[in-house]
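BUG: 3D viewer hangs when loading the predicted structure for this chain

Environment: internal workstation, default settings.
Expected: structure renders.
Actual: progress bar stalls at 90%.

Input used:
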Amino acid sequence: MKKFMVLFSACMLFTLLGFSQRLTADKVPAPVKQAFSKKFPGAAGVQYGMGKKGYEILFREHGVEKSATFDTAGNWLETETAVTEADIPGAVVNAIVKDFTGFAIFKVLKVELPGKDPVYKTNLMNETEGFNVEFSARGDLLKKEPLKKEKPAAPKKK
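Structure tokens produced before the viewer hung:
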């Protein structure tokens, strides 16, 4: 379980801090900053970065952690929002209870994409195994992958 917790913590850190290169605001194109400000006028604690999909912006809105991705032209690509267990749709909770009895829920992300229904991503773990899962808001299981176990560290050469 400890290995799963370490792996999970690392995965979630990279999910929320997913950009590989931090940027100062002056390095972000004006269309990106304008589109972000228009879509998220209440954003606070804004941090910019460059990721695989485009410009990733970490921020808090009404006290909730979020990450939004925009392309160079300022088109919104995705938003990930940290969700408490209390805010998970009932259909998703029911699916977890039904299909993952005995598993604990760890940090849940609501993922929104243009023109699509939201998806809920979480890691579910018990004492012996863990899964990265995605559900539709209706509780449909969209994806189920086993969490990868840590590889033992290579022995140090003297």
